[in-house]
Write a structure and sequence with these properties.
The chain has helices at residues 4-10, 12-23, 39-51, 65-71, 90-100, 122-133, 153-156, 168-177, 182-191, 195-202, 205-223, 225-238, 242-258, 265-280, 285-294; strands spanning 30-34, 78-81, 110-114, 139-145, 160-163. With 295 residues, it is of the alpha/beta class. The chain starts with a helix and ends with a helix.
Amino acid sequence: MIGSMDLARLQPQLFEDFKNILQSDRMNHAYLFSGNFASFDMALYLAKSRFCEDLQNHLPCGNCRTCRLIAAGEFSDVRVIEPQGQVIKTETIKEAMRNFSRSGYEGASQVFIIKDCEKMHINAANSLLKFIEEPQSDSYIILLTSDDNKVLPTIKSRTQIFRFPKQLELLVRAAEKEGFLKDQAQLLAEVAKDFEHLKQLMQTKKLVDAIPICQRFVLTLIRDRQLAYLGVAKLAVLLTEKNEQDIAFQWLALLLSKNTSNPNRMTDLDKVYRAHQMWKSNVSFQNVLEYMVIS
């Protein structure tokens, strides 16, 4: 789990902002954190600040029994809610809010952290609104999302929003340390949400193998479309899972956008976008790549 020193490195400005908030005792009852880069760790840091047994100038020590329990997800008054499949059910939120109305088990405070809050069912979101509007004195809700544009306006208007930008250069350096060339490390970092996701990408052999194939495919697409058509099969055979294919589309768009010598760059980018949209409508990966080449 990321500690305060790492938070200061990963999100230096936000870490300073929240240090000031905690030291001046101005913590809000409802936050919306937009962006995956260290946002969950910041939420846990704030939760620790409510229960820490050895506060240092209002900041959590990170080492006491309570801080360790929160970091391990084993502290009863800090509850983390995640989607089941692609949705957070209404009953899940209602049950959490019923607990929210009671006093905490360990003390007076409670902290609820809701991951991927944009996946709340509309009724679940509405159930949450009442408790955001009428907060208990020592209870807190921290909502996490990859993109606050996907969150209901009624939720956004009642929370304090902080955006967690991805620190791309840190991810690039991490990939380079694992032996990836600069251009390959850049592609991995561009699609990685955070360090954990980057680690997963680097350990997925099919994706690692797909990087040079995508690079060659784009160069061939620019120089000789007939040869590029032959290269479609290589990607289609290698990348069989939907999540792998989605990353390949992102890489193709990135590679085309960076090749400023291509006179048809904007047209080719538009074709990648159209092919991606067709793929999302369940047209096969190979068929949309072929369409992209010959259209």
